[in-house]
Amino acid sequence: MGLIVQKYGGTSVGSIERIQRVADRIVEYRQAGHDLVVVVSAMGKSTDVLVEMAKQIAVFPSEREMDMLLSTGEQVSIALLTMALHQKGCDAVSLTGWQAGVRTESVHGRARITEIDNQRIRDELGNGRVVIVAGFQGVSEEGEITTLGRGGSDTSAVVLAASLQAEKCEIFTDVAGVYTADPRVVPAAQKLPHISCDEMLELANLGAGVLHPRSVEAAKKYRVRLVVRSSFTTEEGTYVEEVADMETGRVVSGVAHDENVAKITVIGMPSNGGTLSKLFHTLALSQVNVDIIIQGSYDAEMTNVSFTVSAGDLHKALDVLEANREALSFERVDHETGLSKVSIVGAGMINNPGVAAEMFRQLAEQEISIKMVSTSDIKVSCVIPAEQTAVAVRTLHTAFGLDVEEPAVVYGRSAAE
Ligand code: ADP
Ligand code: ASP
Ligand code: MG
Prior knowledge:
Blueprint (H helix, E strand, L loop, with lengths): L2 E6 L7 H16 L3 E6 L5 H12 L5 H25 L4 E4 L6 E3 L8 E4 L2 H8 L3 E5 L2 E3 L5 E3 L5 H11 L4 E6 L20 E2 L1 H9 L7 H10 L3 E5 L7 E3 L13 E17 L2 H13 L7 E5 L4 E9 L3 H10 L1 H4 L3 E14 L9 H11 L6 E5 L2 E7 L3 H11 L9 E2 L2 E2 L3
Parallel strand pairs: 1-2, 1-9, 2-6, 3-6, 9-11, 10-12
Antiparallel strand pairs: 4-5, 7-8, 11-12, 13-15, 13-16, 14-15, 16-18, 17-18, 19-20
This protein binds adenosine-5'-diphosphate, aspartic acid (ASP) and magnesium ion (MG).
């Protein structure tokens, strides 16, 4: 039997009782003859608790010390899970990111994994042990502890699976798979048996927190067989994979939302070619991720530029703009908070015109004002007032036929045809 990489998220290891259930599941896999590398997140909301403690000391704490602090959450859960396995007679060892050979860029708070030196893991597996690895963390070339960004344990698991050429990577979480929308917001959301990597990547990037976007990127790049499933039941989950010629019969596969959107408008910048590049280069240098960009006209020589950032980056972005006011020579900056982004995603959109128009019509009928729009081949996103997010998501979910189970498909046609 082959090697499987599993990952258990925060809720799945949120209490001693739950850690015991995870250990039981690991023992079952061992008894079935599998080698196992298990990546674990910090217990429950403990990472949030650590962030909160740091905020009580400093508004902008040192990024190095934040990583030092946040990486402790995973160390608690790997040790407890390994102890639980020992109690059940299962040989296991816990490893921090550093011990597991997870090397990252020298960036704090959102480092990318650059390489995995998996020798230690392979040695431990060779000795018949289950290897329990702390997710979300690694070590930089300078020997500093780094973290991968919130939700990053999924990425730890997928990259380890790629490096170890595992049979598959199972992400165990508190829902039974990937749904057509967040099941907490849309009670009628349907579990998808399969989803393509591209659609999953869009959903994850657009706010469907069930998978860390970089984990999907890595699964696509390294062809890792990725499954999302429940840690509480044994039901089949969702396979994230390329399915050849799969005609789903649906134009839209899912609705995603992100309630942490802020909009910044830079007013009165010289409208020569170099200004835009200078503006976004300055923001990029400060690690501010910009999402939707709209350039409006002002007059022949001047321009206004609006863009969105995640609400958490707003103050950093405003500080950076203020510090570069002279170099960017703008008149003033406005900003707006309390916004969200709702998006529809589906590979079927490519060949179906009118999808965006239908989305706008549906939102207009609910008297939801659309502040910004962005599209790609397989998604349409609208920025709207945050308080209307739930209504917007449910309306779009119903309008695009997602409240009902997907019709069976026979040779690319719906069975009902
Ligand atoms: P974990 O701690 O296991 O990593 P997360 O909270 O990060 O769990 O991700 C699981 C959550 O993602 C679910 O509880 C659900 O509310 C949310 N979610 C958002 N969009 C979706 C979706 N399309 N399908 C499934 N879950 C989703
Ligand atoms: N514990 C980290 C977080 O809460 C990483 C993870 O859960 O994936 O973001
Ligand atoms: Mg997660």
